[in-house]
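Box 4.2: Ligand-aware structure prediction
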Amino acid sequence: MTKGPPTLRLDRLLANLGYGTRREVERMVWADLVVLDSVVLEDADQRIRVTPDLSSRMTVNGAPLDPPPGFALMLHKPLGVTCSHKEQGPLVYALLPERWRRREPAISTVGRLDKETSGLLLMTDDGTLLHRIISPRSQVYKRYDVTLARPLRGDEEKIFASGELMLEGEEKPLLPVPMETVSPTRAYVTLTEGRYHQVRRMFAAVGNHVAALHRDRVGGLVLPDDLPAGQYRILNDADLALVLASPQGA
Ligand code: URA
């Protein structure tokens, strides 16, 4: 027998999405504020089939329901914000709607970008998907557009591709990293690992300094030109298939 979509009690679903406590969402239901398929829902105990299209079928207080659990988004991360739930200063989570910070399961970043790195950042509340994307076994390539403080020497492509580059303080060499030179001070590098400050430390190891770092692809998913810094977009199944298909250098 095939398993259908999960069901959740209406009050549990809305409470988990951050709309309020179960008592508060019960009052919203009694006030006729929750509508499914054009029918006002009267019963906070009723079970709702949690399908990915629920946001297009349910409204709360006249607005489409927030994305149901098991979703992912891409954020165009601006410079100067941190991928953390707890650190001081501006955090990526503050770029999402306020209510989403109360969601259960919580939304997390899929890996991290440094505070001073911009670009394509995935976020999800789906732990299985998150681990699938970050696991080195999945070979999801992440491409970085690197601007350098000094001109390239010329041997960087060979050194990064060797699989022998050892970063300071580490015991295992890096997996081979394809690099494509764009200009004397600009290159693309494509990683499958995600070691701490990896791109910055790779260029430091060859006597250079990263002046600007921007991630433009995760797998086959490209940061769209029409997604400004600080904005996000919910991913659909086709986007996720692109992430996981991960054609290197595509
Ligand atoms: N490598 C870095 O040095 N920083 C990032 O944010 C990502 C990869």
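In the box above, the bound molecule is uracil. Residues 22-30 form the longest helix (9 residues).
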